[in-house]
Specification:
The complex is a heterotetramer, with two copies of chain A and two copies of chain B. By secondary structure, chain A is of the alpha/beta class. Chain A is about 35% helix and about 10% strand. Chain A has two domains: about 55 residues, no CATH class; about 325 residues, 3-Layer(aba) Sandwich (Aspartate Aminotransferase, domain 2). In chain B, helix 9 links the parallel strand 5 and strand 6. Classes of the chains: A alpha/beta, B alpha/beta. The complex binds pyridoxal-5'-phosphate (PLP) (2 copies).
């Protein structure tokens, strides 16, 4: 059954009365010329209508809580419910971002602890939690690279290197920071082509952005050599931490030679993806990059906190506060402020709770079982006749199969498989990324899925392949059991309909 | 092994299927010298019970206060239904709706959100969220620069814009070779129009207009919009979404309306929560749609001709356009948009107008009560939205400290560092959450503190 | 897709590790002879498996939050979410039932207020909140009737009268209190047959249990006359408050002459039905029944609270407590204690919040709009050709249609319609109750449903009737879109399978 | 008009469809003299915002204390997932699953619950819940009386059973002409077996055995069960479900096992919450299934032969059998059973055994710490489950008051009113929620209070 738009449930004059103040709206307080003349077209529904509508809409979604979601590069693992319950404690929700330090010590203690944990996990010298997603972490990272070169008076560096397998945010970020991007090819084993890299670096090289393990699902074995090449050319190494789940507690970006990194806490630290966000893209830096970190950062209040001023408030009570915000007064070379306040605080609290529940040994186990699941799934699919993109390699926490052969033989595309999987009760893997592998499925099972689920997923892929051999048209008509059949994306872009307009 | 479902048998079976002798062998491609030892600074794990006790304690440390701080984050009533529904697993733990057929819930909701935001702002198109208000402003400026090919890259920003927004803007467009010109405020706490008139036509790409501005005052948006147009510049509105229930929407400013509208969606259902997650919204005129950053949802039909929803115009985005994308944004603030959509649905236009009205009235009432205290006066003489500035007879910081420590009152935002020209000025905010008794309590406390 | 039993997802040795204490179980502390030898057969699953399983199970339910639920006599109206959120505040959840009065004043204040509100709403002199559902309220009520007669030394009264339309809990309760039940017939207008009543009453009459409006959906107009007849015979009147929603703020049981009443707070006061419970069956009494009320009750602490003793604790701090529990020391003639502590406290808090959000005028509106919806739906169905059980009467908040004619003509039964409605996205009305109306549907839309929903419901019933005329077998095969088709109840009772037993 | 969706147009249209001139005319069958005026004692409505503030204030008034009170309600860690899932609308706002096809979620969950409860108690059949532990006991006694046709109606109840359970039992079976014989406890805090041996065979229908008993002590359940059998009586076990993870299940007591098992399900996922809602559980031997009160879910098949779940054996219940029903219970405690099922699933047998172990060890540790305080001693010399009694050198009540007022400690349950023979006795409880530091804190506080 389809669910009408909320606007179609609306009737003039209706309201969820318990939710609005009792006193009527008064436009007269607004100067005539600034007054709104016609009310905005918004739904007028009862509380029950709203609750029912959005509850029903929610049922039209796949989610971790309902389905296996083997989305490569996205780390869709279980989001512990305690992280939500505890982050939503009334006191945490009520704290104003500019509240004085006397009213903030609990929150700041969590943030301080989280900074320390992330430093250890990544092997970096400093961490700033403020970036609001991975891409903003990248922004912060590349901004720090720029600030570093500038601080040394080196203005010749105009280029950022990225492997061709890189996530789109990498080149897009380089552009936002005013750099041009140069792509480095991948060799047949999935590693960076070292010769091409050597040829590319030079005094114009600001840095390189790398994911390791890469989005091809393999660990870049010569990372130290790469670091050497780039560093020798005067460039810096940026680590895209989207795949940190694969190596948590096993190997640290800092030890690999990276200068700046971001972490996607909504991946590795299991905060919810929320149907698109919010995330958190904490950044870590090596010693020499410390002065450039984005603010604010939580520091220990060795000296009394600065008095209430701009930015994140000041101590308002006489009582000794243990933590305080560090801002531009503490880090005058900072790349500055990336969000109005301090980033996605509620996401950070969830990540902190998760980190405490994992603990030291749990971190390692994440990498171990994520890798176990990926390699098991890879082996199982290979045994069933699927083609691996990099058959000679260990999978990291994810791996790629390519349907190039199936596409040629029976016209079965990655999209077809993705859509048909939905009918089998599985979310599709990431498709057509990385761009260099044709008809690829990037599969990341994560450590929180059990063997039985993986086996059923293999069975589903095998069944779909068989279906396609029997009747490719049927598979191309999938999905059949979702609220809608396959959607017309071309029409969506051509006949743009991106807001409700009542029929005249 | 928290969150790991494997039994010992599973592990043995799986390793043998892989053909790996041990867990360690799974990491054999990682050079041995790179492998790290135990994470010495990560504490040992806590059970959920232990972490719950820890967090209850931490929450308790964040003492509660009767707060009159606004300055970009506003305490509003949020209907209980909002977060009870938003945190349902199907919204909370879903991914970005790339597989549209399995994400119709999120997609339809986003379409409804876009519809509400365009209606509220009086614009044609909306995206599905930016990170927050300040970063949405920076993206708006970049968007304006992209669509305004000719001439000098220069943005005009009034000092009546939130100082933290200005800082974020500087940081985010720093590498883009865009000049920023700051315009002072006049004695009424509004943007000094004369200073803009003095700028040469064609010398700047866009004008940022905050409404209400940081002091809570109403800018003369019609005049400012028309002036920008006359100078050949685009107009970017930075608005409080709740205020728009009462205020002329940016789409109707001046003769032409603003080109881009942005702001922070926090007042629409996001708890204060130490500053985030909130969300930025961004709407624009139709012709700018291909310059917009962020995701956009469109309505289309399926193979059977049945209506459905999908992400559209993805060719603007980083995962397709890469270094030529309209922005690097990927993960946005989807869950907050979920909350905001439910929040707006429950409040409706009339509900938001009532919230705005109650907040304005409360602010006026508090201003009156406080300015009756000897030595306290208003900074500007005009009315405004739900914030306003007062000036104290002595330094603000120690007064705030005394109010917090002795009366449990968080008295507002100290303006003296950002606006030294205003003296001992304090910015205060009253929303519909405050009762008459609360306002009197504040007035009495402030009088007592100042009396000694 | 079907969802396996949680036991079928279980694997030996698996656990939701974050949930269990770190120290292993130690059986040695238990004397050998008392020790458990084999662990109970319980699931061994991960946290994600549990969350996913129960989230998926929830999706196999209809509920108010997702569907219209016109269940007569059940008052399935919107359960405001605020009632849940606020009742779950950490402090409310943490309070031990035997906590001292110094630590209980907030909770007690709510309960005191609720008692006062319910007294006013019902027109009774006293209220006790302790009964845990309607049926326990009935138990308390009949126990008070018995205690009253006993206190007067009247031991001849052995009979309780109930109308034939009464809910099953009425006669069942009478039996539990040691009474025999005598049924009073209903006349053709749906009222109590007064002559039959007159003939039935006598010195053996302990009392009569009445619902007004009755479960036939009509208001008993001669209630005062009935009260006179029963009272004159020395009997008492018990009011079954299941239908209070129909008359809230319009007419009060106390004013009708009732001596004892119960309220189903999970109906009229909109606390959730929770898939079967919990409820709350607060009782109200007239002046002369006050001494018999079940304990505990919240009283004002005019005198200092009794020191910590048995029952609901005692004041532990020197500070003046405003409220305290009244117990057997205050009400020595009480029928006693019906639950270990004080009943379903959390349900009562929800009811209290709801009552405060309705307020004085909101109470009346509940009755008005519930009645409007019922009469509108009744008129609409009548206009579409459905037969009303009592066509000459106003509907109260509910009404009955009978499919006797359809059953005779085309074999369409109330069950068929109920099952087919599910396919149309509507929960079925109450069927085959009251027992005296053949093939009946007892329909209660409640005040929280909008006109559009009612109209769609009418359309669905009309469509089903048309389908049945075309193809009765199709309708008898319904439902088609639920997780299962029509279930075999006979087999369920004959081949009893009421717990999981692993296949040997 | 909170919670009313009707617009003015709707009302007009609907009244005219009905043919009624006004709202008032809808009530024209109610005699005018009965109509009431405004409800003078019901306050005017509050908005959700206002009621939220009121309730936050009330919640705050219920001050928090470090609690060592047990006595029938136990503070355990409840996984966050339990209530986040239980309060999903589909469980929270669903009705009793009479329409089975639209209620498979609740029904399957109840079937799983019944399976877990029979496993935990070692019995064959379980119902889907009673109101609470005490009322479940009363229903168990009635059930035993029904199935034990011959002889005198008499139930034997030890004084080691919770005093409040005994009160509820008296109240609920009062009208049934059943004698209640109370059996004293011996010096070890256990039921005096001799007193039961002294009863004539055939002179009572059933024996109630609490395990652990109210003092936390372990009864000699094998001996008691065999003794009851020898006297021709049935056995009703009253058990703490968490303790059963370590203790021999009632189904294995003595030579035959107990006949009926009941208790309060609160320790399985229900918060303390001022005493409810909790739930009673009730399991029994197969042959008693038709005597059980309450709902029972069975597995069956649908028209296509696919397995599904439905309420079964409804002919026992009031809505079918009316005055001959096995009980008057209708609405039960379904939502708490939902929570308990999820709770048990998350803990598992091993988790419950660990909770039980940690609680027992904590209790032993506290007992040791406290009995080291001069003047404090244990009441009984044997160990037990997670409760135990100590005797103080002076009256209990003022000591408890001082602990609460000065140390924020809720020290336990004062036994002196219910068991005057024990002197100044105090019942205390430690669960897995208490740390070593908590226990030391209690010991230090008690020592300090007693020292003055
Ligand atoms: C490899 C990689 N890098 C960067 C990002 C961008 O992170 P975010 O979406 O948090 O901005 C992603 C996100 O999917 C990613 O997979
Ligand atoms: C008329 C009537 N009386 C009594 C009851 C019993 O109430 P409860 O289910 O709360 O025990 C009901 C419940 O459905 C009812 O409808």
């Amino acid at each position: 059954m389809s669910e009408p738009l909320i606007f179609e449930r609306s009737s003039p004059g209706r309201s969820a009365y318990a939710q609005r103040p009792a006193a009527a709206a008064d436009f007269s307080a607004i100067p005539e010329a600034l007054r709104r003349k016609t009310p905005p077209l918004m739904p007028e529904v009862s509380e029950l209508q709203a609750v029912r509508h959005y509850t029903r809409l929610s049922k039209r979604n796949f989610s971790i809580d309902t389905h296996f979601y083997p989305l490569g590069s996205c780390t869709m693992k279980y989001n512990p419910r305690a992280c939500n319950t505890l982050a939503m404690l009334p006191e945490f929700l009520a704290r104003h971002p500019l509240a004085p330090m006397s009213h903030s010590q609990g929150f700041l203690a969590c943030m301080y602890d989280l900074q320390e944990i992330l430093k250890d996990v990544t092997g970096m010298a400093g961490v700033s939690l403020t970036p609001m997603a991975g891409a903003q972490g990248e922004f912060a990272g590349v901004a720090m690279i720029r600030a570093y070169h500038r601080a040394r008076g080196d203005s010749a560096r105009t280029e950022i290197l990225v492997p061709d397998a890189a996530h789109g945010t990498n080149p897009a970020t380089a552009t936002m920071m005013g750099y041009t991007t140069r792509e480095i090819p991948t060799n047949s084993e999935g590693d960076v082509d070292i010769e091409a890299l050597r040829a590319a670096v030079g005094p114009h090289t600001a840095g390189i952005m790398l994911t390791n393990p890469s989005t091809l699902g393999v660990f870049e074995r010569r990372i130290k050599q790469i670091a050497g090449i780039v560093h020798d050319a005067g460039g810096l190494l940026y680590y895209d931490g989207a795949n940190l789940n694969a190596i948590l507690g096993k190997v640290r970006p800092g030890d690999m030679g990276f200068d700046v990194i971001h972490m996607n806490l909504h991946k590795t630290f299991s905060t919810p993806h929320g149907g698109g966000g919010p995330g958190a893209g904490a950044v870590g830096v090596s010693q020499r990059m410390l002065p450039f970190m984005p603010i604010p950062i939580v520091g220990k209040a060795t000296s009394p906190p600065p008095l209430a001023g701009e930015g994140q408030g000041g101590g308002a009570s006489g009582e000794a506060a243990s933590f305080r915000w560090l801002d531009e007064r503490d880090l005058p070379q900072s790349i500055g402020r990336l969000s109005t306040f301090m980033g996605n605080a509620g996401v950070l609290i969830r990540a902190y709770i998760y980190a405490r529940m994992l603990g030291r040994d749990g971190m390692q186990r994440v990498a171990e079982y994520a890798t176990l699941n990926a390699n098991y799934l890879m082996a199982s699919l290979r045994d069933k006749g699927f083609d691996l993109a990099f058959p000679g390699r260990r999978a990291s926490h994810e791996f790629i199969i390519t349907l190039k052969r199936q596409k040629q033989q029976i016209e079965l595309s990655a999209t077809d498989v993705a859509k048909r999987l939905l009918d089998y009760g599985f979310h599709a893997p990431t498709v057509y990324f990385p761009l260099l592998v044709p008809e690829c499925l990037l599969i990341e099972p994560t450590e929180t899925e059990d063997k039985q689920t993986l086996d059923l997923f293999v069975d589903a892929l095998v069944a779909i392949w068989a279906e396609a051999r029997r009747d490719i048209k049927y598979v191309k008509g999938a999905p059949y059991t979702m609220p809608v059949r396959r959607l017309d994306d071309v029409r969506a872009a051509r006949q743009l309909d991106i807001r409700y307009q009542p029929k005249p | 092994m928290p969150f790991i479902p494997h039994t010992e048998t599973d592990v043995a079976d799986m390793l043998s299927a892989i053909g790996a002798p041990s867990f360690d062998s799974l990491f054999d491609e990682i050079p041995a010298e790179l492998r790290c030892g135990p994470l010495a600074h990560v504490p040992q794990r806590l059970t959920e019970m232990e972490v719950a006790r820890l967090m209850h304690g931490r929450a308790h440390q964040d003492r509660h206060g009767l707060s009159f701080i606004g300055a970009g984050a506003y305490e509003h009533h949020i209907p209980a239904a909002v977060w009870e529904i938003t945190t349902r697993g199907e919204f909370y733990s879903a991914y970005t709706p790339y597989q549209a057929e399995a994400s119709q819930g999120t997609l339809q909701l986003l379409y409804e959100f876009q519809s509400m935001m365009t209606a509220l702002t009086g614009m044609d198109v909306s995206n599905a969220s930016m990170y927050d208000g300040a970063s949405a402003l920076a993206e708006s400026v970049l968007m304006a620069e992209r669509s305004h090919k000719a001439g000098k890259r220069r943005v005009v920003v009034p000092r009546t814009l939130h100082p933290l927004y200005r800082k974020v803007l500087f940081a985010l467009i720093d590498a883009q070779k865009i000049d920023i010109v700051e315009i002072p405020h006049d004695a009424s706490g509004r943007t000094d129009i004369g200073a803009i008139e003095a700028l040469e036509a064609g010398s700047f790409t866009c004008l940022v207009i905050p409404q209400p501005n940081f002091f809570g005052a109403f800018e003369d948006v019609d005049a400012l919009t028309n002036l920008a147009r006359a100078k050949g510049a685009m107009v970017i509105a930075v608005v409080n979404p709740v205020s728009l229930a009462l205020l002329k929407p940016p789409g109707e400013w001046g003769a032409t309306g603003a080109d881009i509208v942005c702001g922070d969606g926090q007042p629409l259902g996001a708890p204060l929560a130490s500053g985030g997650p909130y969300f930025g919204f961004l709407t624009a005129k139709q012709e700018l749609v291909r310059q917009m950053p962020g995701r956009i949802v469109g309505r289309t039909v399926d193979l059977d001709g049945k209506p459905g929803f999908t992400l559209t115009l993805q060719a603007r985005e980083q995962h397709i356009r890469r270094s030529k994308a309209t922005s690097n944004i990927c993960t946005n603030q989807g869950l907050l948009v979920t909350a905001a959509t439910i929040h707006m649905t429950l409040l409706g236009a009339e509900g938001l107008a009532r919230v705005a009205t109650a907040s304005m009235h409360g602010t006026a009432e508090l201003l009156k009560l406080l300015s009756d205290i000897p030595g306290v006066s208003r900074v500007f003489d005009n009315g405004g939205f739900h914030e306003t500035a007062i000036v104290l007879p002595r330094a603000v910081a120690p007064v705030l400290e005394a109010l917090a420590a002795e009366y449990g009152i968080l008295g507002g935002f100290d303006l003296s560092a950002d606006y030294p020209e205003l003296g001992n000025a304090l910015l205060l905010c009253v929303t519909e959450t405050k009762t008459h008794a609360d306002l009197r309590h504040y007035a009495e406390a402030l009088a007592a503190v100042l009396a000694r």
